[in-house]
Amino acid sequence: MFKVNENFLKLPEAYLFSEIARRIGAYTEANPGADIIRLGIGDVTSPLCPAVIDALHKAVDEEASGSTFHGYGPEQGYGFLTSLIAEHDYRRRGIAMDEDEIFVSDGAKSDTGNIGDILSAAGSVALTDPVYPVYHDTNVMAGRRIQTLPCTEANGFVPELPSARPDIVYLCYPNNPTGTVLTRPQLKMWVDYCRREGTLLLFDAAYEAYVTDPDVPRSVYEIEGARETAIEFRSYSKTAGFTGIRLGYTVVPKELCGADGNGGRVALNPLWRRRHPTKINGATFLIQRAAPAHYTPEGAAQSGEIIKGYLGNAALIREGLGRAGYKCWGGTDSPYVWVKTPDGLSSWEFFNLLLTQCQVAGTPGCGFGPSGEGYLRLTAFNTPVQTRRAIERIARLF
What we know:
By secondary structure, the chain is α/β, with parallel strands linked by helices. The chain contains twelve helices and 15 strands. The strands form four sheets. Strands 2-8-7-6-5-3-4 form a seven-stranded mixed sheet, with helices on both faces. Strands 11-12-15-14 form a four-stranded antiparallel sheet. It has a two-stranded parallel ribbon with strand order 1-13. Helix 4 (about 110-115) runs parallel beside helix 5 and helix 10 (about 295-325) runs parallel beside helix 12.
């Protein structure tokens, strides 16, 4: 009989968000008409901005004509998009970037999981705890050794440097799930460490558009030397509302090198470039054609207003729960608020209490790792009216 990848047997039976959906589904089935306010999964609720919608319609029209039809495109992304990314997301902010260092994909989630394809499965990985489950689960699937870096109230949810040198470190800031950020000196400490130790830094900047504090870096490449040690992942999901149509990109600098079995230096950019056409045909033409609208003055203004609204919701959650006596973190420069459960309740107990007593859905912190036990994540991705209603319900609990 053929053998399975036994590493999958080390995973929880259900992915965190699948289990949340199951519990909400069971509750709504038992309580028809339940008015559930969802502040759990980080799925945007605002429609795509008008500039993007217009660009999508034009892209569909292009596909309707033989003279403008596009089939398979360049797996790494169309030049009309990578050139805009290089210019708007990096060069205009004083960061050197070549277009062929940018790889367009169907989202940051895919890339943060798939990046391990070009890395040795024998390596070790350091992950913050709590952590976005994809980082943990995909490395368990690959059989890598994992060490955790606890992020707790005691250390301000900022991880300390590893006690044992890892081959790979994942950092996500603004952080999912805690909503906290790294200052420039704090991120520099990590870049310097990785350069010194020969560790690869995988930096998830999916929420960079929510940063308003000039002392909080929006890109790891704002830190000197990061191009020699870091890969950056970005997403249009929370930046431009592309959760339903999927688009993101990964930056692999040309000077970033790993080692082969003999200790020789190997550039990672060509490895990722080689992996791409083998495993994907690229993000769809329609979505890539829509993305440039996000960079126009009109599109940027429209997306900016949506992000401003979500940040307003985060402030409603943070301040409203704070007045009600809850301890909260995040919600500034971030769409996530990290809430300490009251009265010593476990994460799932508090989740169930909010669902059944308040009809509000959050995300139990224990699903992000052991250090997440005793916390709950709430997201700002809803309307201001619904967000305010949810906080009023939660505030009345205790």
